[in-house]
Amino acid sequence: MSLLTHVLACLFGMGSWVAINGMWVELPLVVPEIPEGWFLPSYLTVLIQMANIGPLFITLMHRFRPGVLDERPVIYFIVGLGIVATFLLAFFWQHTVTVGGSLRSVPLLLLSFLLSVVDCTSSVTFLPFMMRLRPQYLTTYFAGEGLSGLVPALVALIQGVGVVHCQNATLTGAANTSTVDAGKLEAIYQPAKFSVQIFFMFLSAMMVVCLVAFILLNHHPAVARERKNDLYFSGDLAPEKRDQSLSLHAQTPEQKPMISPLESTRNEPRSSFGRGTYSTLEVGFIFIVLAWVNALTNAVLPSVQSYSCLPYGNKAYHLAATMAAVANPVACFIAMFMPVRSLIFMGFLTLTGTGFGAYIMAMAALSPCPLLVHSGSGTAVIVLTWILFVLSLSYVKVIIGIILRDEGHSALVWCGAVVQLGSMVGAVAMFPLVSVYGIFKSGDPCNTKCPM
Fold it and tell me: Per the record, which residues fall in region Disordered (predicted)?
């Protein structure tokens, strides 16, 4: 295997969700400067779901016009759009427009929607493109996809996003504020080490790196040697082209000897999906697990991460967010060397990860006074739970990607579509609970008092 190809596949994967992940980690610095305030996360959730129009178009094209759409021009377009949108965001994120008599951050919302289209569409184009390379590089791609969340989080950590200190509140007009508790603390958020503009420029640079990696994956001679032949795409070609491809393949010196009728019967496809390796029931199970896992990891649990961690302190929140982001690429590397494809093991890991997710959800529901809130063990447990949650379910996602890669090009297109569908259902389910009904409560980082 080519080390260069592994590096390029990783850098290519990093561009998949780096823009939206970067937007989320930068919210503590963006929100105080815009009229939408903390309603912005809710607006972003809606915009991301609206952006699924991109994956829907790509999936329908593959379904009704197989073999017509080439992912490469689409990837060039969306990555280029991502570069331009993040660059413009650096200069216009604070600009407002009067709409209906109120100030609104129209440039920020519009550019966020375009970035959502870019990242959502990457799910149904980047993965199928990786079919052009040998199977080993798909795991490296998933590692890069995991780094698309980790790298912005680390940069935001260096930037000092959300660092808070508690100090005595300054009381003015003491004669008229006799009921004010003189010992009350005030949360003071420390200024960032560098500006939001520089952070968005960094995201634009990350998208440029993704574009360069993609160009080299298409044109570098070392990568060309790692490419699969065109027969791998024959399942998505028109019948006459597929027959021609098969006839050419039959003339190669790698032709296998004839197999016995018994072996032929044993190797009959078990379903019409992909290569028929899995039965219809097994295919359904794989896609249900894929949708469930992505709903949990991409929408349900991230929407309550602050509620589950912040009661234990700002340090616990940042540690959980960063270590969970590290767990994603770690799971990819584990899958690279131990790709266990057993559906039973996959189901067991899914149940285990769901159990960790249930504990996280319970702590979020108990916020601002979850279990063990006053002890160091509570902090350790919530951080460890987040790590194990992401580690187990990320491994499941990678294994499903490896399984579907072997089933063919169309299987990976459907893989990306189901990833987006699961994420959308999770986001739609959590939006009213978090933003409308206010089921989850956040405490004051300096003044919340919980019973011992």
Answer: 244-271
Tally of CB atoms within 10 A around 4: 14
d(CA 274, CA 236) in angstroms, rounded, equals 10
C-beta separation of 79 from 211 below 8 A: yes
Please state whether beta strands 185-189 and 164-168 pair in parallel, antiparallel, or not at all (unpaired): antiparallel
- Residue 411's H or E segment, with its range, is helix 409-431
pTM of the model as a whole: 0.74
Q: pLDDT (tens digit, 9 = 90+) per residue, 101-155?
A: 888 899 999 999 999 999 989 988 998 898 888 888 888 898 898 888 889 988 9
Same domain, 116 and 219: yes
User: Which residues are within 8 A (CB) of 273 and not within 5 positions of it... i.e. 6 or more apart?
Assistant: 280, 283, 407, 411
Separation between Cα atoms, residue 241 and residue 228, nearest integer Å = 17
- Residues comprising the chain, all counted: 452
Answer for the pair 58, 69: CB distance below 8 angstroms, yes or no: yes
Q: What CA–CA distance (Å, rounded) separates 32 from 317?
A: 20
CA dihedral 4→129→137→386, nearest 10 degrees, is 110
Residues 218 and 337 in one domain: no
Ranges of beta strands (E only) in 32-177 are 97-99, 102-104, 164-168
The neighbouring-strand residues paired with 188 are 165
Distance CA(155)–CA(25), nearest Å, equals 9
Range of the domain at 162: 1-167+188-230
DSSP strands (E only) in 325-402:
none
Instruction: Report how many domains make up the chain.
Output: 2
Q: Which of 211, 230, 249 is the C-terminal boundary of a domain?
A: 230
On whether residue 266 sits in a domain, the answer given is no
How far is Cα 69 from Cα 51, in angstroms, rounded to an integer? Answer: 20
Q: How far apart are CA 40 and CA 38, in angstroms?
A: 5
Nearest-angstrom CA–CA distance, 299 and 437: 17
